[in-house]
Amino acid sequence: MNDIDAWVWWLVGAAALGIPLVMTAMPEFGMFAVGAVAAAVAAGLGAGVVLQVLVFVVVSVALISVVRSLAARYTVQRPQLATGIDALKGKQAVVLERVDGTGGRIKLAGEVWSARALDTDRTYEVGQQVDVVDIEGATAIVL
């Protein structure tokens, strides 16, 4: 064991940290593996054990802090493009069958939808333009 250089041990450690990275999909293991590779480079350049460990810790912590802050920034942002049901809210539709508080039919985004009026006392006649305010299941709520 004494005849194996320290940089080899760091590379073995990097490979060992790569296994749980692949198995668990936890990126922190990958960052520790990169820190181990950096420590292997330091060991290959002749740095002492204390400096090797320091390089491992500094690189690993720096990567974790940078990647976590970037990940937090992207998880807070909502997608700019509305898709699915969210894309239909606020759109205009044309009444195909009389719509009241109990039901009716509209043409929304080229498709026929069941619909009902938001205000149960209100009715919308055929050909009238309505605004979709919400979608409940397969029913558009119109105003």
TrEMBL record:
One Pfam family from the record: NfeD
InterPro entries: Membrane_assoc_protease, NA-bd_OB-fold, NfeD-like_C
Regions that span the bilayer: 6-22, 29-47
Subcellular location: Membrane
Protein name listed in UniProt: Membrane protein
Keywords linked to the UniProt accession: Membrane, Transmembrane, Transmembrane helix
Ribosomal protein found in the keyword field: no
Organism, scientific name: Streptomyces echinoruber
Protein origin, superkingdom: Bacteria
Residue ranges constituting the NfeD-like C-terminal domain according to the UniProt record: 86-142
Chief location category: membrane
One GO term describing the cellular component: plasma membrane
Topology versus the membrane: Multi-pass membrane protein
Keyword Ribonucleoprotein belongs to the record: no
